[in-house]
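#lab-general

N.A. 3:47 PM
ok so I finally got the sequence cleaned up, no stray characters, all 153 residues accounted for. can someone with queue access submit it? mine expired

B.Y. 3:52 PM
send it over

N.A. 3:53 PM
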Amino acid sequence: MRTNPYNTMLRDFATLTDALNRNFAGYDFARNGGSANGNNDASNPETTRLPIDVWAGDEAYTITAYLPGVKPEEVEITFEGEELSIRGRFPQAQENAQFIKRELFHGAFERRLNFNVPVNADAIEATHEHGLLTLVVPKAEVVKPKQIKVIAK
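B.Y. 4:20 PM
back already:
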C-alpha cells in the first residue's frame, strides 16, 4: 500500500503542533475550546461564544447546541426585539485536579442571534435532552411560503 504524501505531511504537522503546545506556555486555551489561559475560577469574567447549528425549514428555524453537564434550569433564553440570546455556565472543573491535558471549556457561555425576518416569539419552544439544547423558532405567518395553484382556462 502506497502512502499518500499529503497524509504524511498532515501527520508531521500535527506532531510538530503537539510538541510546540507542550513546550510553550502561550497555548491559547480559549481559541482551542478551553478556558482562557486555563483559568477556570470565578474571577475570570471571560465568556465563550456557544457554538450552534441553525437551519431553516418552511415553518420554523431550528437551533441546536451541545450543553453537556448544564442543567436545563440553568440556561437562560430570552427573545427581545429581533435578538435571541442563550446564556449559561458550563460546570467548573474538579478542584485540585492534576490535569494531563485541559481543553474543555469551563465557565460562562453566551450566544446571540438576530433574526432579519419576523418570527412568532410567543411560540418559541426549547427542549433539553441528554445535553442537547434544541430551540424551534416559528416563522411569522407573513414570511411562510405560500403555495399558489395555477388554474387552467
